[in-house]
Amino acid sequence: MSVQLEAAPMSVPHPYWLRDNCPCTVCRNPRSGQKRYRIDELPDALTATEAVEDAAGLSVLWSDGHRSFYPTGWDAPDQDGDHRTERGKRLWEAADFARGLPEADWSGYLADPEERIAVLAAVRRSGFAVLRGVPVEERRVLAVARTFGYVRDTNYGELFDVRVEPDAVNLAFTDAAIAPHTDNPYRDPVPTLQLLHCLRNDAAGGDSGLVDGFRAAALLREEDPEAFALLARTPVPFRYRDRTADLSAELPMIGLDPRGAIREIRFNNRSLDTLRGLGGTELDAFYTAYRRFAAITLRPELRLEFRLGPGDCLIFDNTRLLHARTAFEQTTGGRHLQGCYADLDSLSSTLAVLRRNTAALDELEALFAGEGAGEYLGEAVTMAEHMLQAGALARAAGAPPALVAAALLHDIGHFHGSGLELMAGTDNRHGETAAARLSRYFPAAVTEPVRLHVPAKRYLCTAEPDYVAKLSPASVHTLSLQGGPMTPEEAETFAAGPFAADAVAVRRWDEAAKDPAAGTPTFAEFRPLLLELMS
Fold it and tell me: Average of pLDDT values for 288-312?
């Protein structure tokens, strides 16, 4: 359906909202999505003077002369929403993991992006995952954290040792049992992720336990709504002090988002400070609710127990999961874990980028397999064969990864029919088109040689007079459409550019990659290299 209106004010739903979400490059940086204007810079009494909607989307001409285009589906609800609340989680009890924990082998996690996505998604959805086979080396836990984010330094340092210490001031550094709790409730903001890497565990006892705090809070809400509401609205003081630190925070045990969804649990009886400011009846009600919640967290059916062995690294959400430990006998063996803190925002960012990049590679691979199987400007190879051969030639020449990627992807600007425009007599500026498309995912070391590979052809035709004779008939034809050989002045300017040598290398592989008898690799062979460059 198409609606066309005269150039007069018309009604569109929520004009400031619609205009504030204009996706064009004038309004937003195409790479970061950040807006280039202030909301107060939009004109008063903003109206639409024209709107056209069809299968592609909605085009709007605004009263200040700006035109916006909104592709179909642009305003679809975010399926993920606020992934920090219970709405984006899988709430669980111990029996839900009867078939095994969410886990992966460390080497596979490092090598396979899909495996990394699965692990990070499990942490975000279920609250935890275990990596097996992490090298049993001190400080290795820091390397694990840095695969998805940044280490959160605290008064305990960038890492801490969980082992028996003489005259320990923290129960964690004894051999005693520890009830389910969250760490560092006396901080604001609290570290949202915790990692524990097992270096040794041959003591009798010392098994680990996890409780889904969101599930426990949800049960409290079902069974005693008044107790839930009281714990969600009552600020609770938490405090920790030692010789070098004095930390405190005052927040509810059950944190809710503005819509009332559970978003955070702070539960640690060891760090609860003196609750003041409540009357006798209010204190009685609070402690009744507090004890009720504590009893729920201790229900056996909620506690998932397992044993960490050397090389196991547990990653868990410290704002959701309560972790625990059974007592152990230090005399029969040693138990040594190293831990550190990190944050969910960096994990979620890494997960989103991995998903976005793998989706982009899936799209590229589909283009190579689909449209790429078609004719390549009259050459004896297909478009995909040409680009795959160019990538293979760069790889065989020992080119750095970015240059291999540039050779592989240099002609994606011909996709979507624009190559036919070139052969029909219109310069499709496919180098610039390809570079713009790739710039969302790849650095300049990839995109600039792609953007410049057509000028590189024009340069070589001037710098090396016999180069024209090496061009295929199709390349000779397109050369005239692309501006012909450079003038000496143009060639000198081009050669002085920072990516000129790389662009010339891509151009040479481009011209050589038209052999129908040559072996052609698959796109899948280049995916690890491409994904590494996208990270």
Answer: 98
Instruction: Break the chain into its structural domains and give their ranges.
Output: 15-71, 134-350, 370-534
> Who wins on pLDDT, 167 or 198?
198
The backbone region for 31, taken as left when phi is positive above 0, alpha when psi lies in -120 to 50, beta otherwise, is alpha
Nearby residues of 314 by Cβ (< 8 Å), 6 or more positions away: 128, 129, 130, 195, 196, 197, 208, 308
Alpha helices in 370-411, H assignment, sequence order: 383-396, 401-409
| pLDDT tens track for 341-383 | 999 999 999 999 999 999 999 999 999 999 888 877 678 899 9
Q: Please answer whether residues 388 and 379 qualify as being in contact, where contact means their C-beta atoms are separated by less than 8 angstroms.
A: no
Contact 262, 231 (CB under 8 A): no
**pLDDT tens digits along 60-69:** 999 999 999 9
Q: Specify burial of residue 289 (Cβ count, 10 A radius: 0-12, 13-18, 19+).
A: buried
Q: How far apart are CA 363 and CA 413, in angstroms?
A: 14
The pair of three-digit structure tokens given for residue 366, joined into one six-digit string: 């589909």
For residues 446 and 502, is the Cβ–Cβ distance under 8 A? no
Q: Could you tell me which CATH number the domain at 134-350 has?
A: 3.60.130.10
| 370-534 fold | Hypothetical protein af1432 (1.10.3210)
By the 8 A CB rule, do 98 and 126 touch? no
Whether 112 has a pLDDT exceeding 80, the answer reads yes
How much is the pTM?
A: 0.83
Q: Give helix 500-512 / helix 453-463 axis angle, nearest 10°.
A: 90
Bridge partners of 403, per DSSP, are: none
Q: Which sign does the torsion angle of CA 174, 176, 180, 186 carry?
A: negative
Concatenate the DSSP letters of all residues of 473-512 into one string: HHHHHHHHHTT-SPPHHHHHHHHTSTTHHHHHHHHHHHHH
CATH class of this structure's domain 15-71: alpha beta
Nearest-angstrom CA–CA distance, 264 and 254:
6
Over residues 203-224, the mean pLDDT reads 96
Identify the pLDDT of residue 119: 98
What are the tens digits of pLDDT across the range 324-338? 999 888 766 689 999
**H-only helix segments in 49-135:** 106-111, 113-126
At 230, list the tokens: 């009281």
